[in-house]
Amino acid sequence: MKAFQGFIEGRHPLGPGLLLHLRCPSLEPPCSAGQFFLVRCTPSPDIWDPYPRRALFPALIEPERLTLWLADANDRGLAWLVTQPEGTRLDLLGPGGRGFELPPSRARVLILAQDEGLGPVWPLLRRALTEGHQVTLALGVRRGDLAVSPEWVPVAVEYRLATKDGRAGREGDVFDLLSGLEEWPDRIYAALPRAQWSRLRAWIESWRPMIEPGFAQVLVLGDILCGIGACLTCIIERRDGRLTRTCVHGPVMDLTTLA
What we know:
Elements: E1 2-14, E2 17-23, E3 36-39, E4 54-62, E5 65-70, H1 76-82, E6 89-96, E7 108-114, H2 118-130, E8 134-141, E9 158-163, E10 170-171, E11 187-191, H3 197-205, E12 216-219, E13 235-237, E14 243-245, H4 246-249, E15 252-254, H5 255-258
Parallel strand pairs: 7-8, 7-11, 8-9, 9-10, 11-12
Antiparallel strand pairs: 1-2, 1-6, 2-5, 3-4, 3-6, 4-5, 12-15, 13-14
């Protein structure tokens, strides 16, 4: 990871989160969807409260610009971050970890996101379209007022929406959107709560004899503090019972490793 500075250019809501737009003249490519950036959420280098940096995922990746996804408005550091005016200078480290890997040739891509998982997969959706893939986005959110309007989704994307309260799209969660998609995708990319990983595997196994490594990639939405695996905060248990550091070996990992 490299240190660099970003300058706030603006912010606006998107679904269940907030987009924070930064101008980053010294940001060096490459950066891929699913990697993270560590942002210092203090007003000056002499202030260390709150001490840990916040790990944020890019929602848009452009030359010399970075749009970060903020989902937890109750976090003290992020609460400070969202109140800062345009032009505020931020100290960042990144990109860190392993991101999503798209297939080398044109394919049918299914992207699944539940609630806060939307932001991290958003740049993957855009890149998949740029590379000529056929894309379906299945998004589940808690409430209808947190739904992403279809006008925000590229017209080339098949957009499926589910809400828990039924006020927008179909009533339910992201798995209620998968009817008719059996055997369709060549690759699956997901940003889901950990409790839903086994449901994803069960759905795939209902129509696929086996899940080869690389077929389904999952973003681990968990705590990342140091970003180099030293603090061990990000450790999770793999399917085989072994422990792994998701900030080093992830946060994007193969579904067969996790569930």
